[in-house]
Amino acid sequence: MAEESDLEKTEAPSPRRLEQAREEGQVPQSRELSTFLVTMTGAASLWMMGDWMATRMLALVRHAFAFEREVAFDHVLMLDALRGQLEGALFMLTPLFVVLLVAAVAAPILLGGLVFAPKALGPNFGRLNPMQGIGRMFSLHGLVEMVKAILKSLLVGGVAAAVLWNNKDHLFDLMVEPLEVGMPDFANTVAFAALLIVSSLGLLALIDVPFQLWQYHSKLRMTKDEVRRESKEQEGDPQIKGRIRAMQREMARRRMMAQVPKADVVVTNPTHFAVALKYDADRMGAPVVVAKGRGELALKIREIAGESDVPLLEAPPLARALYAHCELDAAIPAALYTAVAEVMAYVYQLDAWAAGGGLPPQVPTNLPVPEDMDPGSPDE
């Protein structure tokens, strides 16, 4: 039962799965939404520009039937007249074509967003398989499309019949109106009827859009095994991740060890802890921890310090406090300023003694380390 549940697509698609689908050109699409927006935009444009278009159309018709006799017998002049009529018609229809183009492009973007998928442009010979085509015809999607087509026909046809029936007297009156009055009136009537008919498509769009979104996400649902594989691919193999972390730690340790020869002093426990300090009065407000370690790492720090002639100072409480409360490349806490100041003073005295001779400086003892800063016992 567990294996069967792992193979069932019960999990919502992951962001990566959705992104892959978009890269392949798979986005939610609604034909009803596109049809509604395009036709509604066209009807609204006719409604707003109906008078202007009717006036232009009337002028074109008049100009077409009012030409001189010699034009009818000269094919060159006839072609010029035809070209002029076509240019006038194109100029009249250009605003309508522009708004329809914008609506046709905006409809898919509203639902699926702007997508550029070169993979979708490649040939897909699987669509030529007749068996798959028959399967799509008798699938749930095909059944839904058939039901939508029937509903669309009934709804649009019913609304169109109702509009025509209610405006039948007005349509008959157009036959007796003068051309100057009848053309704008006819254009407004057609635009108003188109708006009513197209409004019925909005109901289908309201039903189809949620269904298409649900169907789109249902097709992309994943099995639990797919979710685990994707998570593993994104996070990486645990063994590889462990090796990467180990390499990162080793690189960080090497960088830290490279800073030990540049330190001013190494404070030790003497065997458990080692902390290397550096202070530059011109660039630092307080001494900075450049290296720290415990156990074998502390032994390695002391070894490098000895090879580099970096002074070693045995101060167990201070070493434990510095190790516990200081981060690498960070300044020491204010509570340890006094103790570290005595250490740095001792280092400067060592440098002066090494350069000028005389009596060696006295090693500082009983450094003032607050009890709450020392995490260890005195015998560590």
From TrEMBL:
<dbReference type="InterPro" id="IPR006136">
    <property type="entry name" value="FlhB"/>
</dbReference>
<feature type="compositionally biased region" description="Basic and acidic residues">
    <location>
        <begin position="7"/>
        <end position="25"/>
    </location>
</feature>
<dbReference type="Pfam" id="PF01312">
    <property type="entry name" value="Bac_export_2"/>
</dbReference>
<dbReference type="InterPro" id="IPR029025">
    <property type="entry name" value="T3SS_substrate_exporter_C"/>
</dbReference>
<keyword id="KW-1006">Bacterial flagellum protein export</keyword>
<keyword id="KW-0653">Protein transport</keyword>
<keyword id="KW-0969">Cilium</keyword>
<comment type="function">
    <text>Required for formation of the rod structure in the basal body of the flagellar apparatus. Together with FliI and FliH, may constitute the export apparatus of flagellin.</text>
</comment>
<keyword id="KW-0966">Cell projection</keyword>
<feature type="transmembrane region" description="Helical">
    <location>
        <begin position="186"/>
        <end position="211"/>
    </location>
</feature>
<dbReference type="InterPro" id="IPR006135">
    <property type="entry name" value="T3SS_substrate_exporter"/>
</dbReference>
<keyword id="KW-1133">Transmembrane helix</keyword>
<comment type="similarity">
    <text>Belongs to the type III secretion exporter family.</text>
</comment>
<feature type="region of interest" description="Disordered">
    <location>
        <begin position="1"/>
        <end position="29"/>
    </location>
</feature>
<keyword id="KW-0472">Membrane</keyword>
<feature type="transmembrane region" description="Helical">
    <location>
        <begin position="89"/>
        <end position="117"/>
    </location>
</feature>
<keyword id="KW-1003">Cell membrane</keyword>
<feature type="transmembrane region" description="Helical">
    <location>
        <begin position="138"/>
        <end position="166"/>
    </location>
</feature>
<keyword id="KW-0282">Flagellum</keyword>
<keyword id="KW-0813">Transport</keyword>
<protein>
    <recommendedName>
        <fullName>Flagellar biosynthetic protein FlhB</fullName>
    </recommendedName>
</protein>
<keyword id="KW-1005">Bacterial flagellum biogenesis</keyword>
<keyword id="KW-0812">Transmembrane</keyword>
